[in-house]
UniProtKB/TrEMBL annotation:
<dbReference type="GO" id="GO:0032049">
    <property type="term" value="P:cardiolipin biosynthetic process"/>
</dbReference>
<dbReference type="InterPro" id="IPR022924">
    <property type="entry name" value="Cardiolipin_synthase"/>
</dbReference>
<dbReference type="InterPro" id="IPR001736">
    <property type="entry name" value="PLipase_D/transphosphatidylase"/>
</dbReference>
<dbReference type="GO" id="GO:0008808">
    <property type="term" value="F:cardiolipin synthase activity"/>
</dbReference>
<dbReference type="Pfam" id="PF13091">
    <property type="entry name" value="PLDc_2"/>
</dbReference>
<keyword id="KW-1003">Cell membrane</keyword>
<dbReference type="GO" id="GO:0005886">
    <property type="term" value="C:plasma membrane"/>
</dbReference>
<feature type="domain" description="PLD phosphodiesterase">
    <location>
        <begin position="312"/>
        <end position="339"/>
    </location>
</feature>
<keyword id="KW-0808">Transferase</keyword>
<keyword id="KW-0677">Repeat</keyword>
<keyword id="KW-1133">Transmembrane helix</keyword>
<keyword id="KW-0812">Transmembrane</keyword>
<feature type="domain" description="PLD phosphodiesterase">
    <location>
        <begin position="140"/>
        <end position="167"/>
    </location>
</feature>
<keyword id="KW-0472">Membrane</keyword>
<dbReference type="InterPro" id="IPR025202">
    <property type="entry name" value="PLD-like_dom"/>
</dbReference>
<protein>
    <recommendedName>
        <fullName>Cardiolipin synthase</fullName>
        <ecNumber>2.7.8.-</ecNumber>
    </recommendedName>
</protein>
């Protein structure tokens, strides 16, 4: 009896600590979170939906770097494709190129020896978002989920891909991997460079933002776009505005559909006013409970009149939102509470209708490789599944 009472007391104290840590940590974070609005730029854009094609292009550009390479990924694994990537970085250092690599402290998969080898080769390395006191639990949940590559201040990439075998169609459980990643040249690269250097300053405690060598003069491109960096704030506002302003159609592609209450109700309201809502999610999952967390939302939206599709040809990891064929959002943020309220994310709003047509061509192909879902596809079929849904709903903030 005494042991049971002690265990209950310990669990209660732990729950109380986690609650207080998270609540106070978030309050402090929001008080200092960046809310800067970046300008609309004119840039040249290309989109990649397949890992092998992206890595071929990215690695080629890295090999041709002349002055500096700045890279941030949420994940860099320690496998064959990752070693090829890291070898390129070390080779560029030998050629006199400045190379900086930053990875998320939780998300990365690099071994200590690999990191030591990188540093010994001259690659400047930093962990982003290391947990810290006094709010250890909260800071461990705030991840830098951005993916940024800037080469010579002139060519840049951002989107959903990380570096690892699964992203290169070499994981039998998740292949082929479907994702969307942008390549950018033109004046918008300036903002990507700034975002990387701001994150580098936070992680490495080195301020390089005033170094004009990293900001060459850039010409305008053909597509109007606007970068939207968020950190546990503003993403819900951005998504809400896009949905609320929709008149004809909304397309959402995401691996994890766990919207906030506000965004969910705005989607329901859009359907009621006659807006066509289409949602594309994967059939298979790469994380525990994320499918179960999405089921109540998807059941309700299907009943309301939304079209929901499940991707069949591998794993769907893309993050895209298209409204009225006039604005397209591609970036790093998932359509879930973690991206909206915890993670550091980076999205790109695109206002060029010709480029949006290219995106829609990809979406059409992905829908052809999907099946239309019914309410029954997302309904509990056993007590275990019901229990998973309840558990997922309880911890949906952290999935």
């Amino acid at each position: 009896m005494e042991i049971g009472s002690i265990l209950i007391a310990i669990i209660a104290a732990l729950v109380l600590w986690v609650y207080a840590d998270f609540t106070l940590g978030r309050k402090k974070h929001l008080a200092s979170a960046k809310t800067n609005t970046l300008p609309v730029r004119e840039s040249n854009l290309a989109i990649f939906a397949e890992g092998p094609k992206l890595f071929e292009d990215l690695f080629s550009e890295l090999k041709n770097a002349k002055e500096h390479i700045h890279i941030l990924f949420y994940i860099v694994q320690d496998d064959k494709i990752s070693q090829e990537f890291l070898s390129i970085l070390k080779d560029r250092v030998k050629a006199g190129v400045e190379v900086r690599l930053m990875v998320d402290w939780v998300g990365n998969g690099l071994k200590r020896k690999t990191i030591q080898d990188l540093k010994a080769a001259g690659v400047e390395f930093a962990y982003s978002q290391m947990p810290k006191l006094p709010f250890l639990f909260y800071s461990s949940q705030v991840r830098n989920h951005r993916k940024i590559t800037v080469i010579d201040g002139q060519t840049a990439y951002l989107g959903g891909f990380n570096i690892g075998k699964e992203y290169n169609n070499q994981d039998p459980k998740l292949s082929p991997w479907r994702d969307y990643h942008l390549k950018m040249t033109g004046e918008g690269v300036t903002d990507l460079q700034s975002e990387f250097l701001e994150d580098w300053q936070a992680a490495a405690k080195v301020n390089l933002l005033q170094n004009q060598a990293y900001f060459p003069s850039l010409e305008k491109g053909s597509s109007r776009q606007q970068l939207v960096p968020t950190e546990g704030l503003l993403l819900e506002d951005m998504m809400s505005d896009l949905i609320n302003n929709a008149n004809q159609s909304i397309f959402i592609g995401t691996p994890y559909f766990i919207p906030s209450k506000r965004v969910f109700e705005l989607l329901r309201a859009a359907i009621k006013r006659g807006v066509s809502v289409t949602i594309l999610v994967p059939l298979v999952s790469d994380h525990i409970l994320v499918k179960e967390a999405s089921h109540p939302y998807l059941r309700t939206l299907i009943k309301d009149g939304a079209d929901v599709y499940q991707y069949l040809k591998g794993f769907y990891h893309a993050k895209v939102l298209v409204v009225d064929d006039s604005v397209c959002d591609v970036g790093t943020a998932n359509f879930d509470k973690r991206s909206m309220f915890l993670n550091y994310e980076l999205n790109c709003l695109i206002y060029d209708k010709e480029f949006i047509k290219k995106v829609k061509t990809i979406l059409t192909e992905d829908l052809l490789n999907s099946r239309k879902a019914t309410v029954e596809d997302f309904s509990p079929v056993s007590v275990l599944v019901s229990l998973k849904e309840t558990t997922a709903r309880t911890i949906s903030y952290f999935l």
